[in-house]
Description:
Elements lengths: L1 H14 L2 H21 L3 H34 L1 H8 L6 H27 L7 H25 L7 H28 L4 H28 L4
Helix pairs in contact: 1-5, 2-3, 2-5, 3-5, 3-6, 3-7, 5-6, 6-7, 6-8, 7-8
Amino acid sequence: MLATLIRRELHTSLRNPQTILQPLLFYTLTIILFPLASGADNDTLLRTAPAALWIALLLAALLAGEQLFAADYADGTLSQDRLHLPDLWLLLPAKLAAAWLRFTLPLLAILPLLALMLHIPVANIPATAALLALGSLPLLLIGALGAVLTLAQTHGTFLRFLIVVPLYIPILIIGVTAGHDNLLGLAIGGHYALLGAFSLFALITIIPFATLALKAQHLP
Length: 220
C-alpha cells in the first residue's frame, strides 16, 4: 500500500511539474542572491556559504511543505483518501517520501554548481550534500505538520509560518554549525547524529499528530 501511494504521488508530480520546479528555482535564486549581495570577496562568500545554503533550504522546504496537501484538498482527493484509505496514516509517509525525492534529489543535482558559486572547495561538497539531504527530511516533516494544521484556513500562510519557523530553528543552527565545521576540516559525525535524531523524532511524533489533525479537518 505504501509503495502504491508513493508511486501515485510521484505520478501526480510529473503531471504537475511546478511542484518540482518552484522549490528548486526558489532555492537556486536565493543562493544566487548571496554572491550579488556580498560582492566579489571570496573569503566573505566562503564564510557565509553554510548559512546561505541552509537558509535557502529552509525557505524552499517551507514552500515544498505548503504544496503537499494543497492540490489534493482543492480537488477533493484528500476527502476521498480519508474515506477510503483503511490506514490513513500511510498517506503521510507516502507524501513525505515523494516530496523528499522530488525536492531533495534535484537540489543535490545542482548543488555542486551552487557550491562552486559560493567558493566551497570541491573536497567539501560531498559532506555538504549529505548534511543537506539529511536535514531536508525533518524540514519537510515540520512543513507537512504546518500544512495539515492550516489546511482548512482561508488565509493560513502566516499561521503556517508561525507554526513551523520556530521548529526549524534548531535544525538550522545544527546545519549551519556543521557546514562551518566541514569547511574548517573538523569532525562532523556528531552533527550527522543530531540531524538523524531530529529526523527520527519528527517521524515518530509528527506523523501520528498530523494524521489526527487530518481526520479532524472539515474537508470539502
